[in-house]
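User: Could you go from structure to sequence for me? I need the amino acid at each position, not a summary. Structure tokens:
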């Protein structure tokens, strides 16, 4: 039960009921206990029904959460400065955005890249959800100059590209496995059906045994410990680095290096759910109507990327990254006579930078291949020792 959450409208409840019926079938097919990563994939991405696929708008004030680009244009303008520092080193570099949400970030980025005189030849968007893609196409259709450069992709391009591949809050949306470690006894958590409801089940930890044993050694856990890990993260990173012949891979998300992620004090894991700006920890509540995410293990990202020959460009907090990209200069250029606009901008900057908001929780990691010059955004004193 999740008391205190707003009651969904009838139309939304019908979508959730249909998804729940689908989940019951999958639970039955899996022998009664559906692994959590399969549950999460269905809850988020089941065509027509999942959270990102059912067309109920998740973003913004009316939605469930506000991402950095949804809170204003500063984030996109700063990120554009980092991307520009790569495009300036290349001839005809392209940009590929992963999971473009409402399309707001693409719009801000292209606007700023134009101002900086480095519009890319092509702007690819790789989006998993058809409903999100439709939303992006509607949003960007009013911008003919940019629209003709944008191409939506179903899969990664076959031919290698030069340029920048990036994603904001995409890695946290990859389905995770959940496990419980009780004094060395490992079980995998899944989802069952009990008394006409979804409930948590445990099964023997064959699928998670080996990775969890390794994490337990790093974490030095005692007693009862619960957490999650993302089994597809290394392969996802490999697929991105494989396609990048020259340039930068940049990922922004909430997360930690591995030692912090699996710290003994984080004994209830990192899984989080969002519904109408309420954060809570019950992933079984109204499937399809709420976002389900887990923090990102940035060490896993770094291991996969460097193993495929990429060079770690930097790992830093969002606050430090945005400052290195000149967020303070962008603020200083703003007309202070327009009090309303200035207030809005200050609130946005606070949200992006303050440690209690997004400034420290969110991290930025960058990997380069064959780039002669440094990339804007990564100062020498970064957090790479915490990877
Ligand atoms: C939390 S939203 C972030 C949206 C946007 N980047 C922003 O910052 O506002 C996650 C987005 O990633 C998409 N997504 C999730 N997994 C993906 C994947 N493997 N490849 C591409 N897009 C993905 C979702 O459909 C959704 O559009």
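Assistant: Here is the amino acid at each position, in order:
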């Amino acid at each position: 039960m999740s008391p205190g959450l707003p009651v969904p409208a009838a139309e939304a409840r019908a979508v959730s009921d249909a998804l729940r019926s689908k989940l019951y079938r999958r639970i039955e097919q899996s022998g009664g206990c559906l692994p959590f990563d399969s549950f999460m994939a269905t809850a988020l991405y089941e065509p027509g029904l999942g959270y990102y696929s059912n067309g109920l708008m998740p973003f913004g004030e009316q939605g469930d959460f506000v991402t950095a680009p949804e809170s204003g244009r500063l984030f996109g303008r700063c990120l554009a400065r980092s991307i520009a520092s790569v495009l300036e080193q290349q001839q005809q570099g392209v940009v590929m955005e992963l999971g473009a949400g409402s399309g707001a970030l693409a719009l801000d980025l292209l606007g700023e890249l134009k101002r900086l005189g480095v519009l890319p030849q092509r702007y690819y968007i790789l989006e998993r959800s058809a409903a999100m893609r439709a939303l992006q196409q509607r949003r960007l259709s009013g911008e003919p100059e940019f629209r003709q450069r944008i191409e939506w992709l179903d899969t990664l391009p076959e031919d290698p590209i030069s340029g920048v591949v990036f994603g904001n809050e995409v890695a946290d949306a990859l389905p995770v496995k959940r496990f419980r470690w009780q004094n060395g006894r490992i079980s995998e958590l899944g989802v069952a059906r009990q008394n006409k409801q979804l409930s948590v089940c445990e099964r023997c930890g064959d699928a998670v045994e080996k990775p969890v044993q390794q994490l337990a050694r790093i974490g030095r856990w005692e007693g009862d410990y619960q957490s999650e890990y993302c089994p597809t993260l290394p392969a996802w990173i490999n697929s991105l680095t494989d396609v990048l012949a020259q340039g930068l891979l940049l990922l922004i998300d909430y997360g930690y290096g591995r030692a912090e992620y699996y710290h003994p004090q984080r004994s209830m894991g990192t899984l989080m759910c969002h519904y109408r700006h309420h954060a809570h920890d019950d992933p079984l509540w109204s499937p399809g109507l709420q976002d389900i995410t887990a923090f990102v293990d940035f060490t896993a990202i770094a291991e996969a990327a460097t193993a495929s020959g990429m060079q770690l460009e930097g790992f830093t907090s969002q606050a430090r990254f945005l400052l290195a990209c000149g967020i303070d200069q962008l603020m200083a250029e703003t007309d202070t006579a327009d009090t309303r606009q200035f207030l809005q901008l200050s609130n946005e900057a606070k949200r992006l930078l303050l440690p209690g908001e997004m400034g420290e929780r969110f991290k930025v990691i960058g990997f380069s291949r064959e780039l002669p010059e440094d990339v804007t955004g990564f100062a020498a004193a970064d957090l790479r020792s915490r990877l």
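One structural detail worth keeping in mind: The chain has a mean pLDDT of 95.
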